[in-house]
Amino acid sequence: MIKIKNLQVSIDEKDILKGIDLEIPKGEVHAIMGRNGSGKSTLANTLAGNEKFEVKNGSIHMNDVDITEMSVENRALNGIFVCFQYPVAIPGVSMAYFLRAAINAHFEHQGKEEMDAVEFLNKSKKILSELNLDDSFLKRSINDGFSGGEKKKSEILQLLALNPKFAILDETDSGLDIDALKTVANGVNKFNSKNNSTLIITHYERLLEYINPDVVHVMVDGKIKKSGDMSLAKEVEKKGYSWLLK
């Protein structure tokens, strides 16, 4: 699914990623943990195609297609989705309008007929129920006046509605209470299947306890320092990151 080879990335002429090698097969969930400034969010932005981040060397392939130079829009249409830590508010644009437009943009790209209003509402209401959100949520402007938990649930609603091939969750657990955390984790677990892949970026183990990733990586100073299973996340939670800096 996703193959990253010797990825070196800078921003404002400062080197951030210093040779990332990572493969995430279809059907797997991988997690990346690390301190602030280790390069986790830079990796998320680079995978999304953010032009502020300059790829100096290396490559990113998705399903054997080189997407290293692909635009943000084309990456999205080809199945890459990112839940960012701080989702942007868009006053005046309803969740319903945005979601249906996004779904139909993907359908058009795939040569499918657009989803009509009735089918869209039925699909959306089912997902809203799973996320413990009222149907009126669809009428609200995107992230405008949302609580922190509502913003994260909004991202998971989009994830489940669009059903991308590859999802990146960039610190989606940040600032969530335990109930919202469980709801978000349940949404991610509903998304995960043999047909897609997920990369979870986080500081802490607590979200991973509810998702149980296949592989856990620890990033230090722009490189993947260590990889393992869930026991690695528990070790980091117990010891911190200092033992990995040696």
Architecture overview:
- It is a single chain.
- The protein is an alpha/beta fold.
- Helices cover 36% and strands 29% of the residues.
- The chain has a domain at 2-91 and 165-244: Rossmann fold.
- Strand 9 (166-170), helix 6 and strand 10 form a beta-alpha-beta unit.
- Helix 3 packs parallel to helix 5.
- The radius of gyration is 18 Å and the shape is globular.
- The two termini are 32 Å apart.
Ordered list of secondary-structure elements with their pairings:
Elements: E1 2-11, E2 14-24, E3 29-33, H1 40-48, E4 54-62, E5 65-66, H2 72-77, E6 80-83, E7 90-94, H3 95-109, H4 117-130, E8 141-142, H5 148-162, E9 166-170, H6 178-191, E10 197-202, H7 206-211, E11 215-220, E12 223-228, H8 230-239
Parallel strand pairs: 3-10, 3-11, 6-9, 9-10
Antiparallel strand pairs: 1-2, 1-4, 4-5, 7-8, 11-12
Summarize the structure.
The protein is an alpha/beta fold and 246 residues long. Helix content is 36%, strand content 29%. It has a domain of 170 residues: P-loop containing nucleotide triphosphate hydrolases (Rossmann fold, 3-Layer(aba) Sandwich).
